[in-house]
Write a structure and sequence with these properties.
The chain is of the alpha+beta class and 67 residues long. Helix content is 25%, strand content 27%. It has one helix at 14-30, and strands spanning 3-9, 39-45, 51-52, 55-56. The strands form 2 sheets. It has a two-stranded parallel sheet. The protein has a two-stranded antiparallel sheet with strand order 3-4.
Length: 67
């Protein structure tokens, strides 16, 4: 059973989380893995705890994106 972990900045809507879960599951189902065997965990990380170029993402310009 695959377990997929997604790490992203905090602030994901429930609708967007559902789209991510559905889309990732679809990829594995297309590979022949049963839908019920796919587990997905979304970790939302505050920007202050995510570093980019030696600085917290919370201190980066608003157009900065995580790697």
């Amino acid at each position: 059973m695959p377990i997929i972990e997604v790490k992203m900045w905090k602030g994901l809507s429930e609708d967007d989380a559902e789209k991510i879960i559905s889309g990732i599951t679809k990829v594995f189902v297309e590979m022949g893995i049963p839908e019920h065997a796919v587990g997905i965990v979304i970790h939302e990380i505050p920007k202050a705890h995510w570093g980019i170029a030696g600085k917290p993402a919370s201190k980066m310009p608003t157009d900065a994106k995580p790697p």
